[in-house]
Automatic annotation (TrEMBL):
Pfam families: Thioredoxin (PF00085), Thioredoxin_6 (PF13848). This is Thioredoxin domain-containing protein. Residues 12-136 form the Thioredoxin domain. Residues 400-410, 419-431 have a biased composition (Basic and acidic residues). It comes from Clitoria ternatea. The lineage of its organism: Eukaryota, Viridiplantae, Streptophyta, Embryophyta, Tracheophyta. Residues 400-431 are annotated as: Disordered.
Length: 431
């Protein structure tokens, strides 16, 4: 009874605070319309707010809009609500410029006022699942088999999942905070032996990592100390052998380890898949290195930095700068007995029989920050426009009439001839 009174007080306090914020925004699960006048206060009013910068004429935006309408009430009802808002970027250009909106729709997620671009799915149900990650507690405490299963199911495939069985949440609190954007963290307090079988661990405490996207699972039995724990988490944020893409490159770059990169013609070919299997075996025995592969067909603009004129597949060690290492005598992987060649490559690398090479393409910074190029382009266009304006002004007003359209030419010439004839007549009379 007394508890329900406490709940009642807490609830009314929450509602009171809510209604305070609702002076400007009514949080009713509808998508907020923002403009210059209310944007800043909206961002500071909510811990998590997703803003869709749209243009009324853009087709992708029109398709996104009903999905956001559907997701908004679900996200508003979360324990840590996420508010959805939109800005007509075509109309409110100052806001669009401020957040460097150069394509529609641009979706920004503001967590405590800090924006990150949202690149997740755009269907309402998937969007909700994806966004929940950002509003969930750092470490979820799971009390039973069914909550564990529900947690794993709802985590979906976007992020790896870590479950500490028989582990105190304080043990992984720090990592949960640090890697919040990259993975789900939880501890399971009550679970049956069935779950031990399901997640394949035979004693506790155990930290199980699941990477549903790559169908991988790993178990860590300790020691549960900061450094070892973090190594385990970091290693399992990425799959054993990482397919290099724009998305995974960010994770690869954030990981301190060097990457053993295998460049193949086409990731989809059977022989590439066979090679990846062999690389997995090597990767699990060499966890101080990341293993990755990239297909020229899949990501040519990246792969071509590694001198792909030489025979493929080839292996290099890359420290994520504009340099990489080849192993003398182990550049390309021949068809026969590839496992031995991978071993020889790794031996050669460990023994320092390496040759340093430099990127043949544009620098990696350019690859990562292509939007930077666009900004440079804007500056160049602006400077050229200013120079043209200065030139125009310095040459005087008649410069403006240099390139008239045909109407203006006709009109101008007829008015000139009129003026001439008018001027001529009085002259005539004077004579
Ligand atoms: C590569 O190895 C060969 C034979 O072991 C050696 O003669 C050559 O100098 C090495 N090349 C480089 C660049 O280290």
């Amino acid at each position: 009874m007394r508890l329900s009174v406490v709940y009642g007080v807490v609830l009314s306090l929450i509602l009171f605070c809510r209604s305070d914020a609702a002076e400007t925004f009514s949080v009713d699960g509808k998508v907020l319309n923002l403009d210059e006048s209310n944007f800043d206060s909206a961002i500071s009013s909510f811990d998590h707010i997703l803003v869709d910068f749209y243009a009324p004429w853009c087709g992708h935006c029109k398709r996104l809009s009903p999905e956001l309408d559907a997701a908004a009430p679900v996200l508003a009802a979360l324990k840590e609500p996420i508010v959805i808002a939109k800005v007509d970027a075509d109309k409110h250009t100052r806001l669009a410029k401020k957040f460097e909106v150069d394509a529609y729709p641009t979706i920004l997620l503001f967590n405590h006022g800090i924006p990150t671009e949202y690149r997740g799915p755009r269907k309402a149900d998937l969007l909700v699942r994806y966004l929940k990650k950002f509003a969930a507690s750092d470490v979820s405490v799971l009390e039973s088999d069914s909550t564990v299963n529900k947690f794993v199911e709802e985590a979906s495939t976007f992020f790896p999942v870590f479950i500490g069985f028989g582990l105190d949440s304080s043990v992984i609190e720090k990592l949960g905070k640090k890697y919040k954007k990259n993975a789900w963290f939880s501890v399971a307090k009550g679970f049956s032996e069935d779950l031990m079988v399901l997640y394949d661990f035979d004693k506790i405490p155990a930290l199980v990592s699941l990477n549903p996207l790559y169908n991988e699972r790993n178990t860590f039995y300790g020691p549960f100390e900061d450094e070892f724990l973090e190594d385990f988490v970091k290693q399992n944020l990425l799959p054993l052998v990482v397919p290099v893409s724009h998305d995974t490159l960010k994770l690869i770059k954030a990981d301190g380890r060097k990457i053993v990169l295998t460049i193949v013609e086409d990731e989809g070919e059977d022989r590439s898949r066979e090679l990846v299997k062999l690389l997995k075996a090597a990767a699990s025995a060499n966890r101080d290195l990341i293993f990755g592969y990239v297909g020229v067909k899949q990501l040519e603009e990246f792969a071509e930095n590694f001198d792909i004129a030489t025979k493929l597949p080839k292996m290099v060690v890359w420290d994520k700068s504009d340099d990489y290492l080849s192993v003398n005598g182990s550049e390309s992987i021949e068809e026969e007995d590839q496992a031995t060649q991978i071993t020889k490559f790794l031996e050669g690398y460990r023994e320092g029989r390496t040759i340093k090479k430099t990127f043949s393409g544009p620098s990696l910074m350019q690859f990562f920050h292509r939007s930077f190029d666009i900004r440079v382009l804007y500056v160049v266009v602006f400077v050229v426009a200013v120079l043209m304006l200065i030139q125009t002004l310095s040459k005087g007003g008649d410069e403006y009439h240099r390139v008239p359209n045909q109407d203006q030419v006709d009109h101008a010439s007829s008015s000139v001839s009129e003026a001439e004839s008018k001027e001529y007549r009085p002259g005539d009379k004077d004579d």
